[in-house]
Amino acid sequence: MGTETLPPALEIHGLTKRFDRLAVAGLDLTVRRGEFYMLLGPNGAGKTTTLRMVSGLLQADEGSIHVFGVDARRDQVAAKQIVGWVSDEPMIYDKLTPLEYLEFVAGLWGVAPDVAETRARALVVLLGLEHVQHAHCEGFSRGMRQKVALAGALVHDPQLIILDEPLTGLDAGSARLVKSVLADRVRRGCTVIMTTHILEIAERMGDRIGVISGGRLVAEGTLQELRERVGRGDSCLEELFLAIVEQDANVA
Amino acid sequence: MSTPGSIGWFLRHETRLAWRDVFSVMGADRPGRLRGILIAVAIFLAVMHLVAHFVVGPLAGLALHNDVATLVGVSAGLVLSASAVLSQAMESVTRTFYTRSDLELILSSPVRAQRLFAVRVGGIVMSVSLMSLLIIGPFINMLAWNGGVHWLAAYGVVPALAMAATAVAILLTVALFRVIGPKRTRLVAQIVAAIVGGLFAVGLQMAALFSTGTLSRLAYLGSDAVLARVPDAQSLAWLPARAVLGDSVALLVVLGLSLVVFILAAALNVPRFAAYALAASSTPQGRVAPVHATRRFQVGSVSASLRRKEVLLILRDPWLLSQSMMQLLYLLPPAAMLWHSYALDAGVAVVVVPVLVMAAGQLAGGLAWLTICGEDAPDLVLTAPVGPQRLMRSKLEAVGVCVAVVFAPLVAGLAFYSASAAVLAAAGIAASAASATAIQFWFRAQARRSQFRRRHTSSRFATLSEAFASIMWAAAAGLAVAGNGLAAPVVGIVLVFLAIVRAWSPARGRAVA
After folding, report:
1. Interface residue A239 vs chain B (CB under 8 A)
2. Strand A208-213 relative to strand A191-195, pairing
3. What is the rounded CA–CA span in Å between residue B495 and residue B314?
């Protein structure tokens, strides 16, 4: 069976969420299998709310979410089994070591002990955490905490990794390492959805880019497709993004 | 208008922050809450006065005589209060060094930092005095109401206690800083503070048990064994007690001495506070865990993983452990009584069982808050492929296992003495722990574990309900052990009470999440 006939990694239709105002307004979004999808948007556009609904951290008011064909609103447990989530604020336990944290995460996702241990030790090495693998996380820098959180999102080998501003506050070395780990996952067939305000990274790493504004998807495509849409052949993503957001504001 | 950087300027700044903090902790910054809080405070004070009337009413007739027994009793009350005040002062002094919120800003500015610390140390005396007055005040009022205005002199002893306790706290904390370094001082000071708060009461009960065979502190303090060993009535050691009893000269001496001790302690140490605070803020908190590098992964069920995580986090956080296990300190006297009375007496279970039941409720309430509300990685747990009901069940199991581990040895010890008492104790412990856990579950609100000390402020109704349910289960268990038929109606009352609490809780109509 070819990949064309398989359901996409993420398929969202009419997704709506209202707090005191409409945060996500009937969003339609499709992310293909094995692509690195960059979700961009100004502050308050609805990016984080959307991704939190996909990850099961928020209940949607209306609409549908399918993760690799699994209805995430009806069967949350099955959907969560194949998703890894990393937020902008690394939430880990101060009094656990990185290995113990990964052991706990593996327990939550039901990974077999031998497999979990092999993966955890490999991730610790991959992310440069060997020297602190037996230290409590409480004294870790933000970059180290973010790397532990990322390892936690990878230890159960998810098919879809969702990252909300994962590079915020990271030094150049840590940011480069995180990007390289994510790019490697995509090369191995994993799907990654990431939000970021660092547009150079979105431009360089994203297979496709979606721009969300006012809770709706206002533009989507490869960098070249966005250039054609805006009518600026040689523009960088920053210029395109600002133009798209401005156009949307004028229409609204 | 005070000059920026002066003591007056810092005083205004600190007062504003403290006031807003108190306001926020009490929830008064939320619309419409101020009136409710004022009513709650009024009810609290009324209840405290009622309690004080029954507790100290019979003692109000005491007056200033050369009666050593009276001086011993009053002094014991003072030491009891002083231990609680010292505990609070140690907590506050430690926070002065380790709270980084605005310290780095102020220490990096060109103002003289010792002015800030002088204001903060003065603030500790003020806050400790006010908190003490809130608790002790009703007792003083009832003593004065029942026994005469001479008892009002006790109000003067409260700031003296606060100044002396703050001075001792400063000296102890600085000594810890110099001996064991900034990295360990915070933890040790917080544990010492937690233990000091209850140690005197527990120690007195233990002494009473082994000398008079009962848990009665009053009987012990009035015993010949104590009275024969204390100084005579003219000794200066009784000055604080005399001050409480209305001796104005003694009150002035006590106030003066406390002020001198406080000023000396502050003057000698405050200039070095900035250096200590900087040392504290630049000390790495992480440490290598005593975990065997070769240990194999133990990935079990979700419940097992959650249980293991909760146990590890509690065991590795000595501050949290000391806070949540404080109730266990109060188990020492009944445990000692069990051991002491095993071969001597037969009516001991009536005293021991209610204490066990009460302590189980309190311990379970704290642990339940930590597992249900105090989750430092809520996103991780919520994105796990586990149904919310199974997740919650696992957390509740973790609480149950911890409570069982703590209380099983005591119940087993009781079983050697009386099988029926052990069964009733086990039932009472289970009911009390389940009630406290259920109340935490019904009133759950997400928070960080470091907010454990403030857990009571999220819902005072839940806190009071938890305490009331534990007391009622303890009463029911005590009555049952004594063979009193009133136990059944008390059980009925607590069940109806829990149903009402459930109906009033935010959990009504809310799915498990």
Report:
1. no
2. unpaired
3. 31
Question: Which residues in chain A have Cβ-Cβ distances shorter than 8 Å to B304?
Answer: 107
DSSP 8-state assignment for residue B232: P
CB A95, CB B450: distance < 8 Å: no
Predicted confidence (pLDDT) per residue in A80-135, tens digit: 999 999 988 888 888 889 998 998 888 888 888 899 999 999 999 999 999 998 88
CA dist B461 and B439 (Å) reads: 10
User: Which letter, b or e, does each residue of B54-85 get, where b requires 16 or more Cβ atoms within 10 Å of its Cβ?
Assistant: eebeebbebebeeebbbbbbbbbbbeebbbbb
Cβ of B383 within 8 Å of Cβ of A83? The answer is yes
CA distance B96 to B127: 13
Residue A64 neighbours by CB distance under 10 Å: 15
DSSP letter, residue A112: -
Verify whether the Cβ–Cβ distance B285 to A57 is below 8 Å.
no
Nearest to A98 by CA among B335, B68, B291, B88: B291
How far is the C-alpha of B104 from the C-alpha of B102, rounded, in Å?
A: 6
End-to-end CA distance of chain A: 43
Task: Catalogue the E-assigned strands of B325-464.
Answer: none
Do A56 and B317 make contact, defined as CB atoms within 8 angstroms?
Answer: no
Tell me the chain B residues in contact with residue A134 when contact means C-beta distances shorter than 8 Å. Answer: 288-289, 291, 293
ipTM of the complex: 0.75
Alpha carbons A108 and B385: distance in angstroms, whole number:
7
The distance from CA B495 to its chain's CA centroid, rounded to whole angstroms, is 27
| Alpha-carbon gap: A145 to the closest alpha carbon of chain B (Å) | 12
pLDDT tens, B386-435? 888 888 888 888 888 888 988 999 899 888 878 888 999 999 999 999 99
DSSP B181-206: HHHHHHHHHHHHHHHHHHHHHHHHHH
When CB atoms are compared, the residue of B289, B301, B380 closest to A105 is B380
Q: What is the pLDDT of residues B211-270, one digit of tens each?
A: 666 656 666 666 777 777 778 878 888 889 888 888 889 999 999 999 999 999 999 988
pTM of the model: 0.69
The two beta strands, A36-40 and A22-31, are unpaired
Contact yes or no for B132/B50 (Cβ under 8 A): no
Residue range B70-109, pLDDT digits in tens? 788 888 888 888 888 888 888 888 887 777 667 767 777 7
Alpha carbon B107 to chain centroid, angstroms: 32
Contact A56 B383 (CB under 8 A): yes
Q: Are A192 and A37 in contact (CB under 8 A)?
A: yes
Q: Closest CB to B384: pick one of A103, A109, A136.
A: A109
Instruction: Count residue pairs from A and B with Cβ separation < 8 A.
Output: 120
Contacts of B317 in chain A (CB under 8 A): 95
- Give the whole-angstrom CA distance, residue B169 versus residue B93: 7
What's the number of CA atoms in the CB half-sphere (13 Å) around residue B21? 8
